[in-house]
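FW: tagging you since you asked about this chain on Friday. Here's the raw sequence from the shared folder, copied in full. Didn't touch anything.
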Amino acid sequence: MRKSTLFRAGVAVVAGALALGASSLPASADDTDGPGVNVVGGTPADEGEYPWMVRLSMGCGGSLLTDRIVLTAAHCVDGTGADTSITAYHGSVDLESPDIVEYRSEYVHSSPQYDQDGTDDWALIRLSAPVADARLLPIAETGDHDEGEFEIMGWGAPSEGGPQQRYLLKAVVPSVDDATCEDAYGSDLDPATMLCAGLPEGGVDTCQGDSGGPMIARDESGDPVQVGVVSWGYGCARAGYPGVYTQVSNAAADILAAADQLATA
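HL: got it, structure written out here
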């Protein structure tokens, strides 16, 4: 089983704030007056560019699958069951914007397969109220978009062990084939349930605090479709070690079935 230190969840101080029952967003470690120019090779996202992005209070990201259900990573949550401890923040690329609205969780569904063997690193969080004027991110139900160039985004660290960011940043990374990724990660990689993406020379990647956020492709019309969930990797943006993402197309049927159950429960 993969070591938890490889995962890309938020730093301990953010998780600690959640454990203490914090109801407001922990202060960003980056108190600059404007967006930075680099988060592991990223650039600032425009306001409204990724309207389905959600920041979670344990220091992870997520995407709006429905107006009340957030798709994130299983390693970001504490199993399946009633859970009112998570706050979702939505409405701006700037976590300190007055447009940010807070939504409380009421139930979490974690992938049963993840609990059994660590694969299928995805989870759903049902919110206690619908997100106003929600824009949704559809998930890939086939593997048609599992190769090519992908967009990644998040409020995570700019480097290994770095601070979380106030502003949402984005980057583009190419897919990495299974054989190349297996050369890097060996038996830690499960090609049937995971996708890899990154530059051979490194320098652009997701990092700690980006866990649970989406990796997207563009369909023939240019519309976004979620192909991955930020999961793990050896360090951040290291040469020869691409980021590893939950392969959404492999888990799509289970994700949608669980979402249907949560909607009617």
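FW: The helical segments are 12-19, 112-117, 178-185, 248-264.
HL: agreed, and Residues 50 and 105 are 21 Å apart (CA to CA).
FW: great, closing this out.
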